[in-house]
Amino acid sequence: RFDSISVAPPDAILGLTEAFKADERETKMNLSVGVYQDASGTTPVLRCVKEAEKRLLDTESTKGYLSIDGLPDYREAACQLIFADQIAAERVAAVQTPGGTGALRVAAEFLATQCGPLRIFLPTPTWANHNAIMAAAGLPVETYSYLASDKKTLDFDALIEDLKTKPKAGDAVLLHACCHNPTGVDPTPEQWEQIASVVSEKKLIPLLDFAYQGFGEGLDEDAIGVRTILRQMDEAIVCSSFSKNFGLYSERVGTACLVSGSAETTKAALSQLKRVVRANYSNPPRHGGAIVATVLADEGLTQMWHEELAEMRTRIASLRKQFVDGMAATGVDQDFSFLLDQKGMFSFSGLSPMQVDQLRSEHGVYLVGSGRINVAGMNESKMEWLCNAVAAVLR
Ligand code: PLP
Ligand code: TYF
């Protein structure tokens, strides 16, 4: 029976990192997967995380199962970061999940089983895994316009028009809370107000994917989308992740938060979220959540985290600038200054699939086929080399 199984296509992004590792060229650069690399080219363990781990090693007294919804201190700290004091705790049902991906899957199964029948609307383009996660949970997927045809800016009129005309009351709409993946193009605060009014008027369920809090402009600044929606509406689901902002990629730490209008509704929703969790992975892993809870319970470690996060954020902005300047210095016709307005790790470079192929085969620079660049994978010491390689395929 197993001999009829066919080979599944590799993950369009993670597959590239395997190819990159196998590439024997000495000078190469991985700008595919969304992972932050420091100036030495490594993805560091944050100092605040190391310190929290030391403390945990001394104080942790059990490896017993966590409850289905995870560590209470973790959940409280995660919700505080997302909502600040805007939402009363009794209105938030939160479960600690294995990463942002786990949060999205829990949210999607919750929507499919508790709010259906409904469809979910994803922006075009979006993170490829969104489609897979929603489909796996049994949610029919539809799309709404996002990126303009220049591939550099938001087509806001088309977005609003689509949200007004395509979904029906009760459908869900997935919004990237900040640092849109793969484009780096985010709505302005005024645009968030308008998005929130349409989502509210149309009685849609907002599902906010918040995987990059702190990578755009700052922890609170990046929460503006979530908080604007929740000023205009009682209900939303937020899926957050500590993979990027704590560098806890492999520890799998995220949160699915459901906000409702009343404590009673929240209680019922939490019981259903826990039912989804039980049937998937029973309860979340302890270590990553314990790290986050330890850091955020300690003023000194929290301060250290803020500094380390700010360092990653400002370095990415500086890499954007160096790349734009470096490309201008090569003398190519293309102007890359649009990268300066974009937020987070990613931007579309505008390179065609053929140019992306050529960049990989001739120069050892790995981008995703769409031309998406992970700016956080660039490196000061190899910037000139990178710009020359990109210029070579543009000529
Ligand atoms: N959502 C978006 C938009 C992402 O880019 C990612 C990236 O990994 C995730 C969710 C999931 O993150 P995690 O690694 O925490 O599962
Ligand atoms: O978009 C990215 O690069 C990150 C990491 O299946 C990632 O979100 C990529 C692909 C994938 C899981 C995570």
UniProtKB/TrEMBL annotation:
It comes from the Bacteria. One of its GO terms (biological process) is amino acid metabolic process. Residues 27-389 form the Aminotransferase class I/classII large domain. Keywords: Aminotransferase, Pyridoxal phosphate, Transferase. The keyword Disulfide bond does not apply. GO terms for molecular function: identical protein binding; pyridoxal phosphate binding; transaminase activity. Its cofactor is pyridoxal 5'-phosphate. The keyword Repressor does not apply. It holds the Pfam family Aminotran_1_2. Belongs to the class-I pyridoxal-phosphate-dependent aminotransferase family. Homodimer. NCBIfam families: PRK09257.1 (NF006719). This is Aromatic amino acid aminotransferase. It comes from Rhodopirellula europaea 6C. The lineage of its organism: Bacteria, Pseudomonadati, Planctomycetota, Planctomycetia, Pirellulales.
